[in-house]
Automatic annotation (TrEMBL):
Keyword entries, A-Z: Signal
Protein name: Extracellular protein
Signal sequence interval, chain numbering: 1-31
Domain of life the protein comes from: Bacteria
């Protein structure tokens, strides 16, 4: 009789622990993980108000940099294989490949209302 109670108690504990780990181990999105593409908060066309030729376009999976320099051309300098990490409130760390220079780059962008910055001046949405 004592042995049956002991086995029942061990079975109950094992089942409870199994359910506990199953519920706590569910898939949850982490802000610290890398996400593919660009953040929705940055998508769109952004321009420097002082230099209208300097602008950036964030698409879903790519970024295009335009400047007054000749090598940016009609379609801008593209950035591919974009991924981002959330590092704060409307603050994102982006990692992308620039084939024009054949290198990877990191940049931290922050959005405040209708403007964004990477620490080198503000760009406004147009």
């Amino acid at each position: 009789m004592y042995m049956k109670r002991w086995k029942a108690l061990l079975g109950t504990i094992a089942l409870s622990l199994g359910l506990l780990f199953a519920v706590s181990g569910s898939n949850q999105a982490s802000a610290a993980s890398w996400h593919k593409g660009t953040p929705k908060a940055l998508r769109g066309k952004w321009r420097d108000p002082n230099e209208h030729s300097s602008r950036i376009i964030f698409n879903q999976k790519t970024i295009a940099f335009y400047s007054k320099e000749e090598f940016s051309g009609k379609f801008g300098i593209p950035a591919w294989h974009v991924k981002y990490k959330i590092v704060g409130h409307y603050k994102y760390k982006l990692h992308y490949y620039i084939p024009h220079d054949n290198h990877w780059e990191n940049a931290t962008w922050r959005r405040v209302n209708n403007r964004i910055t990477n620490g080198h001046g503000w760009l406004y949405k147009y």
